[in-house]
Amino acid sequence: MTAPPTVSIVMPCFNARRHLPASVGSVLAQSSTDWELVAVDDGSQDGTLEWLQAQTDPRIRWITQTNQGVSAARNAGIAVARGQFLAFLDADDTWSPEFLHRMLQGLEERPDAVLAYCGWQNIGLAGGKGEPYVPPDHETADKQKRLFAACLWPIHGALVRRTAVVNAGGFNPALKNAEDYALWLTVAAHAPMVRVPEVLAFYHFHGGAQASAHKARAALHFLRAQIAYLATHPEFARALGRGTARTLTLGTLLRRGYECYWSNELAESRVIFRAVMKHGYGTRGDWLYMLPALLPLRWHRRVIDMLRSRRNNDT
């Protein structure tokens, strides 16, 4: 049997046939060649598995399972991965050719670090959006609070030691969104991490059913991950205090509800507003916006139209 590679790349694939030439191509183009790609076909029906089976590079391995979701697919890949380090690349995203080289270099320079993260760029956003972004150094005194408040890099913008992921229990299959946030928080809150200040990862927006399109689900699963973390880390919850904890959890949820509301995604905002109200959070002004979410959708739209008409008449 050949020696294990330095890096195992885990790629969950669900009906991803049209994206695989680009994503797998970006792996094949890596300047660092000591890797294996573990592609997990998650019950695809579009020829994904057949495309993977047709690949001839021996570093590309594939396994298949019935459709169980992205977290279960990644966990299945982790279970058979042989590398010392793990990277996660979704089947519709890509890397710079220097991604593995620079990330490995970052961890070699900091052998105590459990994880390296880099900059990224969103590709395909309308309106000319998507400037390259290099995140700040998060290895600070308030790192745990920063990690708790937000997902600080995309899933494919990190390289992590396999032992750390295994010790953390991998990805939570119950989460359809925020599963990477929950893992990074568990892995890096109490262990050093290192920043690679270069844009090396690319997130591609397209017309498919991407997880990022389910905004209400994403917001609620993020809250679920936060609540679970507070429950298992009571000392951190005490250090935050009830007010700060509610601001970072329910305040974040409310902000995401407003983002949907003001972008005319009313159905998504209604789901979020109802969840916020269930927890009794928000100011009187917030509740004036949220309460109509308890009405049937068509009545809610009428309330909004009436308020807009009144506001226009006042001006």
Please specify the SSE layout and strand pairing.
Layout: E1 7-13, H1 20-28, E2 35-42, H2 48-53, E3 60-65, H3 70-80, E4 85-88, E5 94-95, H4 99-109, E6 115-123, H5 143-149, E7 158-161, H6 162-167, H7 179-188, E8 193-204, H8 215-232, H9 234-240, H10 242-262, H11 266-278, H12 284-290, H13 297-314
Parallel strand pairs: 1-2, 1-4, 2-3, 6-8
Antiparallel strand pairs: 4-7, 5-8, 6-7
What would you say this structure looks like, in words?
It contains 13 helices and eight strands. It has an eight-stranded mixed sheet with strand order 3-2-1-4-7-6-8-5, sandwiched between helices. The termini are far apart. It is of the alpha/beta class and 315 residues long. Helix 7 (179-188) runs parallel beside helix 8 (215-232), helix 8 packs parallel to helix 11 (266-278) and helix 10 (242-262) runs antiparallel to helix 11. Strand 2, helix 2 and strand 3 (60-65) form a beta-alpha-beta unit. The protein folds into two domains: 7-211, Spore Coat Polysaccharide Biosynthesis Protein SpsA, Chain A (Alpha-Beta Complex); 214-314, no CATH class. It has helices spanning 20-28, 48-53, 70-80, 99-109, 143-149, 162-167, 179-188, 215-232, 234-240, 242-262, 266-278, 284-290, 297-314, and strands at residues 7-13, 35-42, 60-65, 85-88, 94-95, 115-123, 158-161, 193-204.
